[in-house]
Amino acid sequence: MRLNFLSVVEALHNERDKTMNPIVYAIPVFMLTILLEAWVARRRGVAVYDIPDAITSLHHGLLSQVTNAFTKIATLGIYIAVYEAYRFTEWSMSSIPLWILALVLYDLCYYWAHRMYHEVNVMWASHVVHHSSEYYNLSTALRQTSTGALFGWVFYLPLAVLGIPWQMLVIVGLIDLLYQYWVHTELIGRMGVLDRILVTPSNHRVHHGQNDYCIDKNYGGILVLWDRLFGTFADERDDEKICYGIRKPLHSFSPIKGNLHYYADLWQMSRAAKGWRAKLGVWVAPPGGWTDEPIEHFEPRTFTRFDVQPPRRCVGTWRCSPRCWCLLFRISSVWPRAWTEARPRCTRWAFWSRRWRWGRCSSVLSGASGWSRCVCWRWVCRSPPCRSGLGLRRRCCSRVRCWCCVWAVWSG
User: Fold this and answer.
1) How far is CA 391 from the centre of its chain?
2) Choosing a second label site near 86 at 20 to 30 A (CA), which of 221, 261, 275, 368?
3) pLDDT in tens, 158-211
4) Helices (H), 180-303
5) pLDDT (tens digit, 9 = 90+) per residue, 98-111?
6) What per-residue string of b and e applies to 159-175 under the rule 16 or more CB within 10 Å gives b?
7) What is the pTM of this model?
8) 169 in Cβ contact with 106 (< 8 Å)
């Protein structure tokens, strides 16, 4: 038992050092492709981006990476423990066919995990974050949940019993995740025979739609064959424009509300229910409850997107957005070193202390309040608040020399 425990600890140490950084390293690629997509869409005259919505998606992605830094170790530890205790055999890491088979099996597990995230209320409360954007572009792919680790790990334990090593699991999982990035776009149309085999932008647009024929369809990660096999496939319709988002609009750019609002709704419904069975049913029922009645009809022609105009005094320029993304990349890599003051050209965009340290500030992340168009990350210190010239909240520290506010100002 001691040997197993030591092997788990050693594996987790290696995982921390080697496999937790690939997404961070991919961030520059994400930013460049997002800018490229926005440029192409602008040249084509297609409105696929809303800057506040895109920045909000980046904030969701950043928050998910921060939480995953802690939850990933726990979930991987469970997988390794099951692997050490119950595996039937041990797969060779040098066999290419076994790598391909591991990727296919992982994608099958992902299909069922993804399907349950849509068909069980408490799991939908976690996954609803990814569907909350009313735009469909590459930034939407980065709008990830911060609570997904609570449930998703269970669906991959059969791979541990089959004997797939944790290193192989991490790599095929990363491949499956990165593949799904490029399908979040409206600029790529149908792809012929590939639409029948793989998850393509056309197939995944259906998955993100709230039209009647789009609900609970196309769950696959890489292969759409699973949807065809289990009866959840729907083809994109040329005569009906897809409206993205969720049936109960979020109407907020706060990543905290985006992650927690449906949990709050379930809590209120469970409190109102009578009897423990009814209370439990609220959490495990499908979204919409236990009913055979069809879902309420959605009319695409009456759909309007959430849009709030910012105060004139807070309107910045396009130049601020790329600088914000670059700073988000630096934050997401979590380097515990002293940073010099960052002073972009736009007014009062970010301030940092020369002796800023993670240990001095509690990393409390929240969205901006008051001004819906300015999505703000705050590292809150133990000191009374004050107001900046732009009317955005910040915290001043008298003894601790750190400015704990980062804000992004962009044009509407």
Assistant:
1) 29
2) 221
3) 999 999 999 999 999 999 999 999 999 999 999 999 999 999 999 999 999 999
4) 201-208, 225-230, 255-272, 276-284
5) 999 999 999 999 99
6) bbebbbbbebbbbbbeb
7) 0.73
8) yes
